[in-house]
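Researcher: Quick test of sequence recovery. Tokens follow.
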């Protein structure tokens, strides 16, 4: 039987503001769409950081057949890059793979026009052009189905990790879920301290605020409190039945209290009650502490693909915190007073899109 006839692509172009409705509909219907393809994400990143959003469209007979969302990240410390998409763990080309060659060619041309020496694509269809470097083993994603009830969810967790959760549940910990000013204050304070302790600068608070405001009911914050003090907190995104704990962490006391363990278990139960059936633990760099932490929870790693293009003679930007060039800087950052780190960090982290 002959394959059904499909008209060829008629146009590759940049989306304009009048395309927003069509973009939102396309993303809502596309099979492999992520939260990072949504116009809400693109607009939130731009509003919070100033990195302009550019969406390349492939059209067929006047309708969107595929798209490639991009942010033009610019930083005096880390240089310039077109990223699909900013501050995201996914994104990339969405839609008809037949459009890949033309869309990726358009992306490199756009990068040249914007004087961005690098294009980074996170997930989705990968370029076939030899000019792109494809990485298939640097990151892994972790997704698993949610259990039928709270007890089944606890039983699903492997024995050793389940014991840590039970220890945490035995402590005097309270869990709050919300979207209000208090929830946002708790989350930012905990997250800022957490990443300082890891040696990395905190993202601007405006980014968290913009994402919360843009996603509405599709984002919330779960905070674990001990004696009224927030000790662990996570900002989560909800997309097509999956919960994604996206920005989370704990203060120093969280470790002995097992507050992070309680936080993720509580989020699993909360997400199921609000109708989710999957827990998306996000990505981690292969063979890191976070990678093994997620495996200990019973999640199986799934390799993720990333693509990087660099203009002739230009080295790709290096924003990998595991890079040897950052080892001394990370050690120094961990020693900074929290107040100093919180003032300086957002300026630096804005360029880590």
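Model:
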């Amino acid at each position: 039987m002959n394959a059904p006839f499909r008209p060829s692509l008629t146009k590759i172009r940049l989306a304009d503001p009048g395309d927003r409705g069509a973009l939102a509909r396309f993303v809502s219907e596309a099979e492999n769409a992520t939260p990072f393809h949504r116009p809400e994400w693109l607009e939130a990143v731009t509003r919070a950081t100033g990195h302009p959003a550019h969406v390349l469209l492939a059209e067929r007979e006047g309708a969107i057949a595929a798209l490639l969302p991009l942010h033009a990240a610019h930083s005096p410390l880390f240089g310039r890059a077109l990223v699909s998409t900013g501050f995201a763990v996914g994104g990339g080309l969405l839609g008809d793979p037949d459009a890949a060659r033309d869309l990726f060619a358009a992306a490199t041309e756009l990068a040249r026009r914007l004087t961005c020496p690098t294009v980074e694509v996170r997930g989705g269809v990968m370029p076939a052009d030899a000019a792109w470097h494809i990485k298939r083993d640097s990151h892994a994603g972790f997704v698993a189905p949610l259990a039928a009830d709270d007890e089944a969810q606890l039983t699903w967790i492997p024995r050793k990790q389940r014991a840590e959760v039970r220890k945490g549940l035995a402590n005097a910990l309270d869990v709050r879920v919300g979207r209000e000013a208090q929830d946002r204050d708790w989350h930012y304070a905990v997250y800022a301290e957490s990443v300082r302790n890891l040696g990395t600068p905190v993202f601007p608070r405006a980014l968290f605020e913009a994402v919360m405001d843009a996603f509405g009911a599709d984002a919330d914050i779960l905070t674990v409190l001990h004696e009224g003090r927030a000790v662990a907190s996570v900002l989560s995104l909800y997309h097509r039945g999956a919960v994604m704990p996206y920005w989370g962490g704990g203060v120093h006391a969280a470790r002995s209290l097992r507050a992070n363990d309680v936080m993720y278990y509580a989020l699993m139960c909360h997400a199921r009650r609000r109708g989710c059936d999957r827990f998306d633990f996000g990505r981690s760099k292969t063979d890191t502490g976070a990678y093994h932490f997620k495996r200990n929870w019973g999640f199986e790693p799934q390799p993720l693909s990333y693509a990087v293009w660099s203009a002739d003679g230009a080295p790709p930007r290096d924003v990998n915190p595991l890079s040897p060039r950052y080892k001394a800087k990370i050690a120094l950052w961990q020693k900074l007073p929290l107040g100093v780190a919180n003032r300086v960090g957002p300026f630096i982290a804005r360029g880590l899109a």
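The domain at 147-276 is CATH 3.40.630.30 (Aminopeptidase).
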